[in-house]
Amino acid sequence: MNLQELTEQIRTKATHADSLNATAKIVTEQGVVYIDATQSPAVVSNDDQPADCELHVKVDDLVRMGTGDLNPMMAFMSGKLKVKGDMGVAMKMGQVMA
């Protein structure tokens, strides 16, 4: 999966991001996906802007989390998912991306 496909997939899922009320950035080896859920509907772009929470993860691991093949908590505990910033936003991101 490339960054454009990933961004479109996240844009579709971010329609449920109203409860997030924050900004988040998913940082991958292919680039950045920025989610601004402070507005409704949430805006998803590839702009590298400051965010309340940053999730650092490889695209393959993110896809595996999305399909249920990789538990996000296990990914975090094993270092495949790194979180910078607001951990509460990171937890809400798990609900948004489900």
Give the arrangement of secondary structure elements.
Blueprint: H1 3-13, E1 23-28, E2 31-36, E3 43-45, E4 53-57, H2 59-67, H3 72-77, E5 81-85, H4 87-97
Parallel strand pairs: 1-4
Antiparallel strand pairs: 1-2, 2-3, 4-5
What's this entry about, in short?
The protein contains four helices and five strands; from the N terminus they run αββββααβα.
List keywords for this structure.
single chain; alpha+beta; 4 helices; globular
Explain this structure to me?
The protein has helices at residues 3-13, 59-67, 72-77, 87-97; strands at residues 23-28, 31-36, 43-45, 53-57, 81-85. The chain is an alpha+beta fold. It has a five-stranded mixed beta sheet with strand order 3-2-1-4-5. It is globular, with a radius of gyration of 12 Å. It starts with a helix and ends with a helix. The mean pLDDT is 91.
Proportion of strand residues: 25-35%
Q: Uncertain spans, ≥5 residues at pLDDT below 50?
A: none
What is the number of beta strands? 5
> Helical proportion?
25-40%
* CATH architecture assignment name: 2-Layer Sandwich
Number of helices: 4
CATH fold annotation? Nonspecific Lipid-transfer Protein, Chain A
Mean residue pLDDT: 91
Which strand order spans the largest sheet, edge to edge or round the barrel? 3-2-1-4-5
* Biggest sheet details: 5 strands, mixed
Categorize the overall geometry. globular
Rounded to the nearest angstrom, the distance between the terminal CA atoms is 18 Å
What does the radius of gyration come to? 12 Å
Question: Which CATH first-tier class would you pick?
Answer: Alpha Beta
